[in-house]
Write a structure and sequence with these properties.
With 334 residues, this protein is mostly helical. The protein has 16 helices and three strands.
Length: 334
């Protein structure tokens, strides 16, 4: 049943916290969801406590958790602490779009538009290396465009790029028109109807964007994880003749998908504990090969996929330590 009331959100948070205790190896994503439900339940101190719990336990993505904590703190009156956390994230300069988007939108929400602009710009600069714009950088460009419209700043090259990448029927200039805010307070029914139509279009595009990051994901097992998986569940061995063939197959599958014109690929890096936790949640044995695609889809839907392809000079997704262009990103895709 959907969680629509504070009580339902609180109940869902409690359920997720119990799951995190059962499956500690997968607790980061579970507790992040629990913290979101705490916020929706109005229990912002409870959400902050969960963020603190995660930060004390060597999380995989500290900047993301810190950004969520800062946005949450600001919402219940702890502006100074929130700003201090935001300053720390900006100094650390993470190469991940999510923390930048969260802190920029927090600043924007609280009318610090220039600081929001600077965060959107810095995040985009770190992710765009002069070549193709990574998918995760597009929302930063859109947010930057919106803030610049509110600041009354003339368009620059990145605003033009954001317009080009925007695929909606309503232009970004129209969606980000500051006068739209005034229309929401209008007594004219025609103005209100027009603004509701625009908001619906914007919401639809936002939902589509959130659903697009990894419509296709391919599962990659590091060598040590694959060895552990096959030792524990020999019935899966037929899926993976060798680690070398498996890794080559991941790149080959993604290149084949790219050739069809599909977009927004992701690579899920599997771990045996998370696979076992998924199997337990599905009440299925981990030795069932048909569970592998479902596990991949579930991990991708929870934000556990990384974009493909990496930039040529970025580390290859396979974990070799070599630049992608000198590893699987070479002409042969070796």
């Amino acid at each position: 049943m959907p969680s629509d009331t504070p009580a339902q959100h609180a109940s869902e948070a409690e359920r997720l916290e119990r799951i995190a205790v059962q499956y500690p190896e997968d607790n980061e994503q579970v507790l992040l969801r629990a913290a979101a439900h705490r916020e929706l339940a109005g229990d912002r101190p409870g959400a902050s406590a969960l963020y603190d719990r995660l930060l004390s336990d060597e999380p995989r993505n500290p900047p993301l958790i810190k950004a969520l904590k800062a946005a949450n703190l600001w919402e219940y009156g702890h502006e100074a602490e929130a700003r201090a956390i935001i300053d720390g994230i900006r100094a650390a300069a993470p190469r991940d779009s999510a923390p930048w988007e969260i802190i920029a939108e927090a600043l924007e929400t609280h009318d610090d538009l220039q600081a929001a602009h600077d965060c959107f710009t810095t995040g985009a600069t770190l992710l765009i290396d002069g070549g193709e714009v990574p998918y995760e950088a597009r929302l930063l460009l859109v947010g930057r465009h919106r803030v610049r419209r509110m600041l009354g700043t003339p368009h620059d090259e990145w605003d033009t790029l954001a317009d080009t990448l925007h695929a909606g029927d309503i232009s970004l200039d129209e969606l980000h028109n500051p006068k739209r805010l005034w229309a929401l307070g209008s007594d004219d029914p025609a103005e209100l109807r027009a603004e509701i139509a625009r908001l619906r279009a914007e919401l639809g595009e936002r939902r589509a964007a959130l659903s697009r990051p990894f419509p296709v994901a391919v599962l990659h097992w590091p060598a040590s994880e694959l060895a552990e998986l096959l030792a524990a569940y020999p019935s899966i061995a037929a899926e993976y003749p060798s680690h070398a063939e498996h890794v080559a197959g991941v790149e080959s599958a993604l290149r084949e998908l790219a050739s069809t014109g599909a977009e927004n690929f992701g690579i899920v890096t599997g771990t045996v504990p998370s696979f076992e936790a998924f199997a337990a949640a599905e009440q299925t044995s981990p030795d069932d090969p048909s569970l592998l695609p479902e596990y991949t889809t579930s991990m991708a839907a929870r934000g556990r996929a990384t974009p493909w392809p990496p930039a040529r000079n970025a580390p290859c997704w396979c974990g070799s330590g070599l630049p992608y262009g000198g590893c699987h990103g070479g002409s042969s895709g070796a």
